[in-house]
Design a protein that fits this description.
It is a single chain. By secondary structure, the protein is an all-beta fold. It has 2 domains: 387 residues, YVTN repeat-like/Quinoprotein amine dehydrogenase (Methylamine Dehydrogenase, Chain H, 7 Propeller), CATH 2.130.10.10; 238 residues, Lipocalin. It contains 1 helix and 59 strands. The chain is elongated. The two termini are 55 Å apart.
Amino acid sequence: MKHHLNAAIPEQYTSFVQLPNSEGHNAVWDFVRSPDGRFFVSVCGENEKPLTALLYEYYPESGELRLMFDVAKIWVVDHQQMPPSKIHTSIDFLPDGKLIMATHNTAPAPGHKQWMFEQFYEHPWEGYPGSILMIVDPDTNEVGVKGIPVPRESIYGGMLGNDARYYYFLGYMRGHFYRIDLETNEVTDYGKVSEFSSCRLVKDERGRFYGSSYTGGIWRYDPERDEIEDLKIQFQSPNGTKHRRQFIFALHTPRNTLLMVDNVDSEIIELHPETLEVTRHGYIHLPGEVPNNPYGIGGFAADENFVLYYGLKANDDYCPIRLVRWDLLNGGQPENLGLVVPNGLDSQYICEMIFDDRGILHMVDVCGQFSPYILAVDVKQLQPPGEDAPAADLHPYWEPAYNGVGSPAFMHIVADRTVTLPLHQHMDWKHTVVSHVRTAAGNVYTVSGQGCIYLTESDYTAHAPRRIERVYDGGAPVSCIDLDDRSVAVLTANGFIVEIDLESGNCRETLAVPRELELVKLQGRLGKDNLLASDREGGIHICNLGGGIIRRLNGLRVETELACLIQLDDNRLLLSGPNDELLIYAVAEERSDKLNVRTPSIRGRSFKATVTGGAVLADGTVVAGTEDGMLFTLSPDHGASTTYGRLYSSGELRQFIKVNDDEVIGVYGGVRDAGHVFHFSKAGGFVDLGRPRVIKDNNEVAEQDTEWADIHYISGLAYSNEDDLLCVASGEKQYGCVVRYQGVQFGNA
């Protein structure tokens, strides 16, 4: 079938409006129509310059624009920080006609050579402080700023609920789904729903929200039940895991279904909300085409007869985006309507397209040589170009390489091989929060679950668990600790300590915790049958698994919820006392002695110097970290300490495990930080290994044949010296995975 792919949309059926770009604005990521027919467009800066977003009203009949505000004029923008450069897929309309929206960032801070949101996530001066939520009166241009709902996060898509007291939105960095109560300003975090960077939401007729992960897993939030449901519906790619697959556009069909399409490869699926039946309509490319590289979709609209229109971006050879028509519901096939090249201004991408009341289609061009602009098209006049249609005069353009820093900006953990175990693709999301990870006998095991305990088993390279077993129904795991080569002890939410045999999956209750005693953490193991556990008040108890006895140790308590005990031998424990004091506690004598050395601290913050993790090397040297992120060592006689500093300005050091007799790895960061794995040796010192980030945006990761992953809160590490295998587990609510690394480059190598 001939499509005459080099022909342009006939210009006599179009009108062109240049959007402001004299300051370097090159994009639009919100173009919306209000219930009363008014059009609004956000003009943005992307990648190149530290610009702020502009909002205009657009008049479709005349093509006129009216500036409503510049974010820099209604919000103080610090001259060193990443700016609020966008308003991105977040505009919605309140019942009184006002607009609600949020800022977003994809522009560098002044002085930065490229956009580095993640690299400066924790940086207080040069990072992004967080998106602001705004309510705008379109008649007076008055802007009310609600503030920053989630510090450091960039809001990446938002929508009002059917109950307009609530505004729901997505976070770019962490991939979480949030709700803000517009009356009380209370923000609710529903947890992780994407690796990161998924921006689109759509509601069905009952007000239920749909979105997807970056890798194409569709989820639903029901406001009545106030919970997220993993639908186990996935966009399918002929390219496997090579590219992102996140949901990007949706339309409501006349038959009360949702048409949803993903960003790259662009499969169109039809979802029936009440039955969850899925009809797969195929991909957006033209009949007979077999793309060498995945095609992308730009814009998605339907006319009064529900004939679809969208931009089709080919990525094989140079080609501007083209307009395609598809009468999908009536069994038609995609039709080429011509390239988008008005007056020779090649369009590289269309971010949105909307019909007006006259049936004119308004398309917004972004991220090209002439961007941004709006092209209005009388699509009723268009037919597929005939054989005699002249070829368009193209002006080849390739987007600049915005990675001006290069490999020094890479954040991933470097290893010979990286393999993701995406538990969220094989289990109900709510059961995938990993409480414990373990390597044993050539396998990787995870303990997880909500209201129960699941055990999974996989090998080092599989992309799916070979075994998923629900081993306990009494309660969820609260805290875990290894018992021996093949078993794990688990403190459960229903007040038991259970023992799980990893090989058989057998789980037995070994100890019932009295109701009046609220244990919160398993701290260590003394001998074969005795565990140490801390309670809500910090008291430490010996839990004898063989005899079923729990006894509190006199004079022993941890100072904070994050505090931990470091076991020196079968009798002595190292821990923090008040502030920066260090104690050694003898279990047999139930007595503590204060050391002459103290934990390192930031001057004026010794109250944050509590030990939160540690390990003992073969020569007796203690390697430990604090709640304030300071790493230090104690000499074998505990008489001298050496301080190695910290990685970031916030976040604790925890989850220390020994790699061998002389090396330790551990985790930087708590629940709100972006977790890193670090390495320590006396020879190499304190070294950041990077983040468990399998995002294929650089040449060191792009060709890895594994699923994408982006862990922010690390719940656990496991290491097999024999197999040179590091496992990093995710503890983020409802979207768990494990990333396995073989051949990690430890130290400064």
